Amino acid sequence: MLLYLLDLIGVAVFAVSGVLVAARSGMDLLGGLALAALTAIGGGTLRDVLLNRHPIFWIRDARYLWVILIAALLTMGYIAFFPPPVNSLLIADGLGLSLFAISGAQIAEADKHSPLIVILMGAMTGTAGGMLRDVMSARVPMIFQQDLYATAAIGGIAVYLILQKAGLPRTVAVSAGVLVILALRVAAVVFGWHLPRVHAMH
């Protein structure tokens, strides 16, 4: 149930971020709905395909699509009358990243994959939808920008796995993993944290 709730909340939050990007890009209603859906289910779809999990989660359970539709329409209704809060896209994207990264990791973990695969699948679940969103709206994907993004997801998943291994309750490990990802994303944006650049010798 915890995994399912994380997934639904992550879908809703990423759908919101898709609508916000669509609005900034001047897309119409259909474009906004399509971008919301792509953002919300893109990462999980890729994860399910690679892990050979069929039917894919949103085909098996149409409630995901209803959550996307409701979240997208509510967001469109709100921004039609009120300006989005400052940094709303970064907040929505950070929440979606943290929730999806941990839920994706749990799905790979439930399939008895190694910790490395768990980390990769979790990070992919959290980042791929946002990357597809940014590419389709002609933006530089956040994953390729300098501040911590995929690294934040990897760090949070690692904390989740370590706490699980240490014997802490799953809810504690999940909460800690989500908070670590959020904290790293906020710190990266506020303080400009980023990984060292690759330098070629001349």
Automatic annotation (TrEMBL):
Domain Glycine transporter: start-end pairs: 5-76, 91-164
Pfam name, any one: Gly_transporter
Membrane topology, record value: Multi-pass membrane protein
Matching InterPro entries: Gly_transporter
Location (main, coarse): membrane
Transmembrane regions: 5-23, 29-50, 62-82, 88-108, 115-132, 144-163, 172-195
GO cellular component terms attached to this protein's record: plasma membrane
Keywords: Cell membrane, Membrane, Transmembrane, Transmembrane helix
Subcellular location: Cell membrane
Family designation: Belongs to the UPF0126 family.
Cross-referenced PANTHER family: INNER MEMBRANE PROTEIN, UPF0126 INNER MEMBRANE PROTEIN YADS-RELATED
Name of the protein this chain belongs to: Trimeric intracellular cation channel family protein
Source species: Dyella dinghuensis
Lineage of source species: Bacteria, Pseudomonadati, Pseudomonadota, Gammaproteobacteria, Lysobacterales
